[in-house]
Amino acid sequence: MGILNVTPDSFSDGGHFQAPETALAHARSMLTDGADILDIGAESTRPGFRSVPADEEWARLEPIINRLAPEGVPISVDTTKAVVARKSLQAGARVINDVWGFQADPDMAFVVADGGASAVLMHNRHDCDDQLDLLADWRRFFDHSLNLAEKAGVKKDFLILDPGIGFGKTQDQNVQAVASLDILKQEYGLPVLLGLSRKSMFGYLLGRPVDERLAGTLAANLFGADAGADILRVHDVREHADALAMRQILKDCK
């Protein structure tokens, strides 16, 4: 899953692809490099982000989706707003990536169900807690999200879980979340998306600034793939495609 942020303030690439033509060129570059799906975000979710009105968020998304969807490009939209999700699905998006797992907007699950779409349900918290039992909190959160999905009529096999790296967790808990992917996968039997590209955990663990976190990201994502992650959400598509291809070549030689 290639990341396309059409925002001025995303933590890694804010403002780089805000202009529609620049965003479209980057989208096509990621597809050429091996992206299977594009995840388009028009509101930053970085710590301390500024929320934008739904009409502004949609104004950023509309020219991108309207150009790519007719070409058959698989599009995911990263939003917590049901009204934005509905317009995105009507325009041809196939997946809604909700960083609050249907728990921020009471209409979101119904919009996904009405659109016959898939959804990524991400674990999130408002605050960090050093004493958090992460696995217990995963269960509490995802049980609630899946209950909302069932009540709205979203098909369970259209759902994907995201452990929520960097969202309401200490850096040690972020590491635990990656290391425990196999538990999440086994517990729910659903596909898992891992989104840790260039995140602050690599600054914490390796002392690297945001533009020097590719090696750490690759290593963590390869670990995640071996632990059962089905989707890797990344900025650096070509490098991940190469790394996964070599991993498969080596596995096939056994």
Automatic annotation (TrEMBL):
Recorded catalytic reaction(s): these are:
(7,8-dihydropterin-6-yl)methyl diphosphate + 4-aminobenzoate = 7,8-dihydropteroate + diphosphate
Q: In which pathway does it act?
A: Cofactor biosynthesis; tetrahydrofolate biosynthesis; 7,8-dihydrofolate from 2-amino-4-hydroxy-6-hydroxymethyl-7,8-dihydropteridine diphosphate and 4-aminobenzoate: step 1/2
Q: Which cofactor does it need?
A: Mg(2+)
Q: Name the domain of life.
A: Bacteria
Give every Pterin-binding domain span.
Answer: 1-245
Sorted alphabetically, which InterPro entries does this protein's record hold?
DHP_synth-like, DHP_synth_dom, Dihydropteroate_synth-like_sf, Pterin-binding_dom
The record, for Gene3D superfamilies, names: Dihydropteroate synthase-like
Please give the SUPFAM superfamilies that the UniProt record associates with this protein: Dihydropteroate synthetase-like
Entry EC no(s): 2.5.1.15
What broad class of enzyme is this? transferase
Q: Which CDD domains match?
A: DHPS
Q: What is this protein called?
A: dihydropteroate synthase
Family annotation (Pfam families): Pterin_bind (PF00809)
GO annotation (BP), single? tetrahydrofolate biosynthetic process
TM stretches of this protein: none
- UniProt entry keywords in alphabetical sequence: Folate biosynthesis, Magnesium, Metal-binding, Transferase
| Source organism per UniProt | Gluconobacter cerinus
Which molecular function GO terms apply here? dihydropteroate synthase activity; metal ion binding
Output a single Gene Ontology CC term carried by this record: cytosol
